[in-house]
Amino acid sequence: MENQFIYWLANPGLNHFLMVSALLFALGLMAVITRRNVIMVLMGVELILNSANLNFVAFSHYTSLSLEGHMIALFVIIIASAEAAVALAIILNIYNRFRTINVDEISNLKG
Amino acid sequence: MNLFAIIFYLFAIVTIGSAVIMVFSKNIVHSAFALMFSLIGLAVFYVLLYADFVAATQLVVYVGGILILILFGVMLTTQGIPEKLEVLIINVWPSAILSSLIAVILFFVFTNTEWNLIQVVERTEVVPELGMLLISKFLLPFQAIGVLLLIAIIGAMLMSTQSKRLNN
Questions:
Q1: Cβ contacts of residue B167 below 8 Å, gap of 6+?
Q2: Do residues A101 and B87 touch, judged by C-beta distance below 8 A?
Q3: Which end of chain A has fewer CB within 10 Å, C or N?
Q4: Residues 6 or more apart whose Cβ sits within 8 Å of residue A12
């Protein structure tokens, strides 16, 4: 039992990568929940997207989802970049209008 | 202990550690730099998984693009006032319990699922195959994402210039 665990630990496989991505997902979720700064929320979302990407690439290496996993990861990266550009434009607009980027203080729709 | 395992654990520590620093740091600029190290660690993981093109894209787009954009956003919204760099942290314990619960559930699912593993192939020519996939099977998503990027860029430009006009 003990030897088996050490052997499992010394040979990283699919499960190890999946666990790293699970930890990254949990940390990104925590950043989204705890922070009140819009830019920090955006960074948490980026972390969550990256954890999903790591899952796709790990599955494309270890299972029969071959190069299509790479393609999905690339499309996720492209969409994340578009999302970041639009989100930062929205954040700058919010800052110009309300002079704050605290998500709790931005509560009225008709600024 | 082979080289693969050593590199994996080293960069797992780098990635997770800097993600932890990012989540718990009080200064937003420190958080942004910790996010950079986390993204670089993920690029090393992609190299370990024979996804060199994805790793290069990760470095160029995330570390070179999105992170710089985030730092610009931080600079434009704080305007050099150091007090604004400190960010408020609320709901630490409920969110810690929730996210660790989710992490435990994910661990349980990942370790108890019988994955359909195949014999690992060492790929040598990833980029030509990716290019062929891009112009054959993924042609429609490729075109659609080009249009999406164009729309996003035009929208972002329009939004950020409109705010200036309103102010003046």
A1: A96
A2: no
A3: N
A4: B4, B5, B8, B9
pTM of the model: 0.89
**Dist. CA B61–CA B146, nearest whole Å:** 15
- A29 CB contacts (<8 Å, ≥6 apart)? A44, A48, B95, B98, B99, B102
Beta strands in chain B (DSSP E): none
B95 and A30 Cβ atoms separated by less than 8 Å: yes
Chain A CB contacts of B128 below 8 Å: none
The Cα of A74 is separated from the nearest Cα of chain B by a number of Å equal to 6
Tokens at B37, concatenated: 């190290």
Q: What is chain B's pLDDT, residue by residue, as a tens digit (168 residues)?
A: 688 899 999 999 999 999 999 998 888 889 999 999 999 999 999 999 988 899 999 999 999 889 999 998 888 888 767 776 777 778 889 999 999 999 999 999 998 988 888 888 777 788 898 999 999 999 999 999 999 999 999 999 888 886 555 555
Q: How many CB pairs under 8 A join A and B?
A: 227
B56 → chain A, closest CA residue:
A74
User: What helix, strand, coil percent values describe chain A, rounded to 5?
Assistant: 80, 5, 20
